[in-house]
Every structure is written in structure tokens, then in C-alpha cells.
Protein 1
Amino acid sequence: MRAFGFEEHGGTDRLTFVDVPEPVPGNDEVRLRVRAAGFNRLDLFTLHGIPGVAIDRPHVLGSDASGIVDRIGPEVTNVRVGDRVLVNPGFSDGTCEQCRRGQDSLCRNYRILGEHTQGSAAPFVLVPARNVYPIPGALGFPEAAAAPLVFETAWRALLTVGALEAGERVAIVGAGGGVATAAAQIAKLRGASVAVVSRSAAKAERARSLGADAGLTFDEAHPLDRVLWEWSGKRGIDLVFDSVGSATISRSLQAVARGGRVVVIGATAGPKAEIDLRTLFWRQASIRGSTMASRSEFAAMLHELDAGRLRPIIDSVYPFEDARTAFGRLDAPNLFGKVVITLPET
């Protein structure tokens, strides 16, 4: 089976079409004929090589998928061949203590499609049956492939880990990626006052079209914490959603209100940072980490997509044959939303 990925870790020069075996479903697995797949920054990290994460190579990229159920295992009862579905890309074992508590993303055996397993940029992808859901509402295949990873990540980070309440002030640091566009919508849906902050004035302004109350810019002359402090009326931010990492985390902390929270969901600019502990304890603030979501959180997110209260934001759609070009969009300065590739029906 011809798929898109890499044979050796490295830079984007390692990207290629690879040959991998056509997957065959086990007892409780579903084989999906992929009609659309989404790329995320996680794919870049996987390509470069993530310390401690060993993968089979050649490796297929892609953590989001939508398509048609092609084959099912003998124990599968929740879907039928021919169903239009999307995939929850977070795989838990369903049996450990955390899974029994409904905290699937804390499962010790947690895996992510396309990172720990072969990904979705292929004609077929194999997933556990419990991770397959009907496509919500009137979403087409590209929109359905643009939603899962970014919306579930933002949902848990804001509502569960961040404990966001209506009326609070929220800052989304970074405006262009899919997770930021999802987070801005979810925060507004919860009734928060939302500022999206970016180094790009164009991206900050586009964020206002998603319902954000403000699109703000920062630079060396106008640091992130000062910009947010002024926007908040010098009261501070209740919840800062930060996916950038080392370049912004210390400033994010400086911007929080007393009792405020910084929720970290990524480290695009680097994994290590310094913070001022005096700010942390004097403001009784907290820094919290979050990744992916539980099954119940994923279902709740899908319900809002089905109702039309959330919508996937797509930067661009490319055919499968142009997967390398599509992947290059992840580093484009004007990226806004998800990058999706489409595959033919047969």
C-alpha cells in the first residue's frame, strides 16, 4: 500500500511516499478507507524523532482521518461497512484504572494515531472500533478530518484542566494553528472574554472572525505580558492557553491574575523554559499540562460540532499526490487552520 511518511527520521527532506502492508482488522478493529487526513505539528515532531518514542519504519504520518468503513473485525458492533465516520486519534486500552475512571488520556498505554502507530495519510488506516464515530452534522470529509485532534485537545485543556468558567478572561497565545482556532471557539462557547495574541497582526485580526473579543499583537517592544495586562484592565488573565512553549511561557505566567492558570498543550518553540517562582506563589497561580481528551470529552466536543456551534477551520486542502506540498504548509508564516489532504474514493 502506498502511503505518505518517511523511512528515516530527520527534516522535511526525508518525506516520501512509502510502501507499507495493507492493514487487516483484528477482532475489535475497523479498517477505514481514508477520504481525508489532517496534518498537525505533531507530525513534524514525529518526523524529527521524539525522545523515548520508538516507531516502526517506514512510518506513515497523519493523526486525523475521515472516510468510509471498509472492513470490520468479527466483534465490532458499533459501525457497519459503508458508514461515514471520523476517528478519535487517541487510543487507550480501556481497562486500566485511569480508563475505568473515565480519564482515558492518562492511560499508561495511551497512544496517538500517527505518532505511536501508523498514521492516516494512506488509502487505509486501522483503528480500534471504540475510536470510530459518525461524522457529525453536515460536515464533509475534509472538515471531519480537520476537527478531532485539535478540538479534543482544546476542549480538555480549557474546560477540564483549565476549569474555565463563564465571564473569565482567556488569552489564546498563537493564532494560526488548528488548535488555537479551536480554542478560541470553545472559550467563547463557554462564555469567556477571549483575546487571541500573535506576532502577526493579520492572524490576530482573522481570529476575531471566530468570535474572539480582541486580536492582539506582541513583539519585543510590546511584550506578551504587558499587552495582556493592558487588555485585562490591569486585572490579569484568568486562563492563558499556551501552545508555544519556551518563547512565551514565562510571559504568560506574568500576565495571569491572582489565582490564574496557564495551561500548556505544546512546545512548538522548544521544550525548556525558565519561570519566576515568585510570581507563581505570590499570585497563587498554577501551570497545568494537558494533552488530548477522554472519550466523554471527545463525545461532548462532537455534540457541539453536530449542533453547528463549533466549526473546523481549514487553511488548505491538497490531493494525496501533493502531500509533500501540503506538509510544507505547517511551517508557512500565514498558516491559519488545518492542513488536509484528500484521497480518492477508490
Protein 2
Amino acid sequence: MSENKNKKVKIVLAVIAGLAVMVLVAFFWGKQWFASSYFNQGQTAFLKGDYDAAGQLFEKSLKFNAKNPEPHFYLGKIALGKTVSSGPLLYPNADYESAVEHFEQSFSFGLVQKNKDAYLVSLNDAGFSYYMLKQYEKSIPLFLKYIELNPTGAFTARYFVATDYLNRSNKPEEALDILLPAVDAVSVNSPINRRNLFRVYSLLGRLYSYFADAVNTEKYARLSIESGVAGNREPEIQVAHVLLSIVYGSRGDFSSAMAEIKTANELAGSGSAYNCSLVTAYFAGKNYFDAVEAAKAVKPSNSYGYSTCLQILGESYLAEGNKIEAKKYMEDYLTMTDKFKDKNIFVFRNREKFVDELENLK
């Protein structure tokens, strides 16, 4: 009798265990089904441009599968908002902090294995988001990875890496190498890239100016002006006119140099914003007298622009053999630029040169 009872108990326990397994399986697959259903609905809403509805659906999907990287990818895109076809920002209404949080989550949960196309997009968008947050140490490695995986389509990544290399990291050769492919036909095949090509040309002009390559400086400065929208007042167009003024100055054509500075100042909405650049044009043409006179006529400030006047005053006096005045202005330049949070390739080079020159003047 006890044996039969034991058999019945075992049967009951087996049934209960089976039911428990079935419940767990049903619960698991139910969670997966709900996660998938909400995710698919979210994708549909996202493609329709209804970001509010899409965001709510992706959040619901994550409640049923918290480690799915794809909802985080889309939530990152939603945090960035919709792109614009012109202007310096791809995403003018973005919540960059939220975007990078979701992109990092998507990376940590294995987006690269689950959706390689989305992973590529995330690298570029996360790089851009960190750049806009001025977290360059996180931005640049993401952009470089994107360039490695998508070399012919990395227009934006190349531009921002080259900008960092020029403005902050003091890597002029690397900047030129990484930026030149951005002008390839494949890289500029989207309307947004074509509309922003003038920025790349202007940056190339600055890099070639650093290397004293007047031919390519002029080439890319003119391409920047020609490829920009008519009447474009963007800083990159202003810089292109400044670059042309320096090229004209190096040829001794100071009237043309003055005309380019006048245009740059008008575009900047100021009659004097680029007057120190005219000083540079005089110096480039070895017109040290006018360089000194023009520099002394500029109102002093703590700006990068005025530091150029100090630089040219130091170099012009040195070229004329006036070591006392040269020493004074070189020291002033070093004092001012030492306070700059970020130093571009020109400042790095000038500082190194002046330190050496001051050592020789002792």
C-alpha cells in the first residue's frame, strides 16, 4: 500500500515539475514575444517618423528583454532627433547625453554581433555625440573605428577627427591624411555631405597653409567659397577668404590681400575681426614695416586672433634685427597662449619656435 502511495507521490511530483517547467518556458517565450512585438511596432513607428510613439514602444520592449541591444540603438537615434540638411550640426535638437548612454548600452549588449549595420551607424553617431559634449577622448576612438570599418563613407568622421587633430591634438600630418579621402565622390554622395563639403575644403586649406603649400591652400580656399551657398556667412567661408589673403600677401599683392580681409570682416559682421590676418598677409610678403604698423593698430584682447598679432610682431622685429622688441612680443605671445585651453597646430609650432628663439636671444 505504501509502495503505491510512493508511486502516486512521485507521479504527482513529476507532474508538478513538468507544469513548473511549462510555466517557466511559457513565461520566457511570453517575455520574448512581448519584447519582439513591441520592438517591431517601435521600428514601424520610427520609420514613419513618429519618434514619441517609437520611444515608448522601445522602452516597453526593454522591460521584457533588458539586454537587447537594438532598442537601445533606436533610443539613441531618437535622443539625437532628426537630421538637418545644412548648418554645422547634424542634429540641432539632440539630447547628446541620453544618446551616448543608449549607444553605450547597445555596444555592451553586443550590437556588433546582432546588427552590424546598426553598429556602424552607432559608432558614427556616438562619436558625434561625444564630440558635441566635448568628450574628445571618447569621440575620436569611435570615429577612428568607424573610418576603419567604413573608409569610403566616413565623411563626417573624417572631418571631425581632422578638426580635432588640427585644433587640439597637434597632428597636422595625420589630419591631412585622414581628411583628403573625404572629398572622394563616394564619400560625398549624400546631399548632407555635399552641402557641407565647403567645411572640408576650408579645413584642407588651413592644413596646406600650415605646410606652406600656397598652391593647394589657394585651391581649397577657392573650392570652399565656390561650393558654399551663395552669401554663406559660415566661419569656414570667412577662413577661406583669410587664406586667400595670406596667399596674395606671399606674392606681394597686398591690395588683393586687403580685399579678401575686407570680405571676411563683412561676412563676420565686423569691420575688424580678421585684421590680425591682414598682418599675417603683410608678413608673408616680407613687408615687415606694414605688418608691425597694422598689428599695433589692432585693439589688444585675449583672443586667438590677437595672439596672431603678437606672433607677427615678434617675428617681424626679429626679421628686422630688433631683438629687444622681438623678445618682448614673443614673451607676450607665450604668456597669452599658455592660458589657451586648447592649442591648435599653429600655436604649438609658434610656441616651440619662440621658446627656441628666446633661448638664442639670452
